[in-house]
Amino acid sequence: MRILMVCLGNICRSPMADGWLRHKTKQHGLNLEVDSAGTANYHVGKKPDHRMRRLSLDFGVSIDELRARQFSVADFDNYDIIFAMDQNNEQNILQLARNNKEKEKVKLLLNELHPNQNLEVPDPYYGTDANFKEVIELLDHATDAFLFNHQLITKQ
Ligand code: 4NP
């Protein structure tokens, strides 16, 4: 299965979601292909935000090798599930979809953890280390819920 994590800048939330899923793919020996992208192009080519890179290491996950890229229509061909971090991202991705099959690939990540609630991963960019840490923990739980829901792990 091919999974794409998407946020606005691709420097905070989606690289961390990507990092967790790559980490768990390796840890559990899963057959997942994982990447991330941003709906905006502000940070293309940059490493993830320095706060996310530093704090992710406290959780045993390195995201230093990731580089921001912008979501493109070709991602609908290359991924099976496209997880948006918030409803704005979701709408921006849906606007690029060419048909219903592509639209069906787009989901809110937190619906894995809290089905049908359409909750959003808060944007930590203008926040504190504590906000970044909360996002890292939320993304840990959400990626576990995704793996559990798809029967790729047996407990969360
Ligand atoms: P992200 O956070 O979407 O989680 O990567 C943001 C990063 C940068 C900006 C906004 C959100 N920005 O406005 O530059």
TrEMBL record:
This is protein-tyrosine-phosphatase. Transmembrane segments: none annotated. Keywords: Hydrolase, Protein phosphatase. The lineage of its organism: Bacteria, Pseudomonadati, Bacteroidota, Flavobacteriia, Flavobacteriales. It is an enzyme of class 3 (hydrolase). Belongs to the low molecular weight phosphotyrosine protein phosphatase family. The active site is at 7 (nucleophile), 13 (nucleophile), 123 (proton donor). GO terms for molecular function: protein tyrosine phosphatase activity. Gene3D superfamilies: 3.40.50.2300. It holds the Pfam family LMWPc. Its EC number is 3.1.3.48. It comes from the Bacteria. InterPro entries: LMW_PTPase (IPR050438), Ptyr_pPase (IPR023485), Ptyr_pPase_sf (IPR036196), Tyr_phospatase_low_mol_wt (IPR017867). SUPFAM superfamilies: Phosphotyrosine protein phosphatases I. Residues 1-149 form the Phosphotyrosine protein phosphatase I domain.
